[in-house]
Amino acid sequence: MSYNILVVDDEELIRDLLKRILENDGYTVIAVSSADDALESLKQNDISLIFSDIFMQGKSGMELLKIVKKEYPYIPIIMMTGYASIETVIESLKMGAENYILKPFENIEISNTVKSILSNIDSRVYTYLQEIFLLLVPIAEKYVNGKLKEQDYLNEILNVLLKSKDADSGSIMLYNDVKKELEIVAQKGLNASAGTIIPLNGSVASYIVKTQKPIMINGKASLLEQFTFVKDRDDIKMSMVLPLKVGEKIIGIANMNISKANTRKFSKIDEKLLETFSTYVSFAISNYLAAKKLMEYNQLKSEFISCISHELRTPIMSISGARELLESRLPKDASSKKMHEIIKRNLERMMKLIQDLLDFSRTEISGCKLKKTTVDITGLVRDVIDAQDVLAKNKNITIQKEIEDGISLFCDEERIKQAFSNILSNAIKFTLDGGRITVSVRGQRIEVRGQGLVAGELPFAKFRGIAIPPLHNSQTPELSNSVVISVADSGIGIDSKEHKKIFEKFYRISNNVTEKGFGIGLATAKTYIEAHGGKICVESAGAGKGSKFTIILPRQKLHDDCQY
Predict the structure, then answer these.
(1) Contact by Cβ (8 Å): 401, 485
(2) More exposed terminus of the chain, fewer Cβ within 10 Å: N or C?
(3) Which tens digits make up the pLDDT trace of 280-326?
């Protein structure tokens, strides 16, 4: 690999000597006499290493070092002087100099120092790019977790791109391959706003779409042969336009501009670095496009489910009414009564499935909006148990209650009732005839440890045999004034591999061969519980060994990022 080395010294003898030593070692050398000439050379050439004298006329070597470390942090610089004090050497190293050499120097000293530094040059560039890439990671995490809106996500990506090279303005445009046009989705410092459509009619953007190669424009674009038709902006000094690609497919364009008021300029190495960095931006943008398509699909799916549920509800209500009318008029013999019970039981099951679908679709479409009041949780749990008692008795299932009286909670009563009802009905559904279910309700100050819990993971603490997940991200224990509700059954159990999956939408456990449903009950329960700042988790030793679901609902606000 060929390396370009920049030598900066106002003594011609030193410049010539260094040039001869380095060229003999096979390097390409650019020798200049001032810091200003060095900065201009950096803009025009792909420099791998710099030798700079400390004491020069005009800008000193220390001033050059400061600028290089700011604008070209990946380029190592070696300081040289014949008058160095220990303080000067230490100061230059603190400012980021790679090494220092005292004049006069030996040829072998120069050769060995250069060879050692250049052996690590690729890792230095990689580290620099990695540092910039890591700026995108928390942005992507916020977007995925719903803490960053779509437009804010795109703006943040553009900000990282512009800051990486101190650019003043720029934009990100997405390419529509069907309509053959570009849409500005994020911009800073431009006249056009997000949403503006850019047709491919001979613009700089159309050139990038066609060639799929980056271009650096120094001065007026219209002076270039391929852009004579372009209307220039008087305030822009330089521009860099980059294709955003996934594989060989172009998905958009990013451009950056440096204004005439900015002393900064793009360099040849900037072009190479940004071409590499554009792959990271492309990755972030492609994730956005995939997430957008998924959200659109989920929205359509939720609207479809809502529509179907409403359409099914009307005939089911008519059938239910007709059944009640027939029951009052037909004979009361055992055979007729049995048939009516079968019809009634299946109608109730259908209504429950339709109601689950409606609850799920409403949450998906409109979000989980809470209407909080002070609720008697003890009474709420007892009411849900009483409502489902007939289902348990039909299977000879015993429901044991371990419920403390007088426990209240500031919450949305209907949401919490629905969440607990879903969990209890699942317990009844997946517990075999003659089994047992234990429902426990307690109010307790619980010591919570750890750094948070994803629904389905095993918790970090225990309270009276109940699994207690952490309520927040914390390194230290905290006493949480909470309501703990658990439902333990002797049913079919859940394999440990499925503990996380059972809270996903439309997921049904693999060992369920008899009971059918849509797989949305636990997903809905999780949504409602987490909307209250609570947690839900599951414990099961495996197939045939029962399950225990634990809900923790805080009675007071512990952290600003939790909505209780």
Answers:
(1) no
(2) N
(3) 788 778 877 777 777 666 666 666 666 666 566 667 777 777 777 77
Sequential DSSP letters for 247-274:
TTEEEEEEEEEEETT------HHHHHHH
**Using CA atoms, how far apart are residues 136 and 449, in angstroms rounded to an integer?**
30
**Cβ neighbours of 506 (radius 10 Å):** 11
Radius of gyration, CA atoms only, the chain:
34
Sequence-separated (6 or more) residues with CB below 8 Å from residue 217: 204, 224, 227, 238, 239, 240, 241
Q: Report the half-sphere exposure of 405 (CA within 13 A, side-chain side).
A: 0
What CA–CA distance (Å, rounded) separates 231 from 365?
A: 45
CA angle 222, 160, 182 (to 5 degrees): 45
Q: What is the pTM of this model?
A: 0.49
Phi, psi angles (nearest 5°) of residue 549: -105, 135
What letter represents residue 289's amino acid?
L
- Sequence-distant (≥ 6) Cβ neighbours of residue 94 within 8 angstroms: none
The CA–CA distances, whole Å, from 485 to 112, 306, 438 equal 70, 30, 11
Distance separating alpha carbons of residues 324 and 38, to the nearest angstrom: 93
The separation between the first and the last C-alpha atoms of the chain, rounded to the nearest angstrom, is 61
CA distance 240 to 379: 66
pLDDT tens digits for range 247-292: 888 888 888 888 888 777 777 667 777 777 777 788 778 877 777 7
Cβ atoms 383, 416 nearer than 8 A: no
Q: How far apart are CA 302 and CA 358, in angstroms?
A: 9
- 411: enclosing H helix or E strand: strand 408-411
Say if residue 554 is preceded by a cis peptide, omega within 30 of 0.
Answer: no
Centre a 10 Å sphere on the Cβ of residue 536 and count the other Cβ atoms it contains. 24
What does the angle CA 536 – CA 540 – CA 546 come to, to the nearest 5 degrees? 110
Residue 266 in contact with residue 235, Cβ under 8 Å? no
In whole angstroms, give the CA distance from residue 299 to residue 365: 7
**Structural tokens at position 5:** 């080395």
Question: Tokens 């800073």 correspond to what residue?
Answer: 188
User: E strand or H helix at 239, and its extent?
Assistant: strand 236-246
Place of tokens 């795109």: 154
Any idea what the Cα angle at residue 548 is, between residues 542 and 552, rounded to 5°? 140
CA 306 to chain centroid = 29
Residues in the chain: 564
Residue 433: how many other CB atoms lie within 10 Å: 8
3-state secondary structure of 531: helix
Whether the pLDDT of residue 472 is over 80: the answer is no
Q: What are the Cα distances from residue 137, in Å, to 124, 130, 188? A: 20, 11, 21
Provide the mean pLDDT of the chain.
Answer: 79
CB 495 within 8 A of CB 511: yes
- Helices 521-531, 413-429: axis angle to 10 degrees equals 150
Query: In sequence order, which residues have a C-beta less than 8 Å from that of residue 304 and are 6 or more positions away?
Result: none
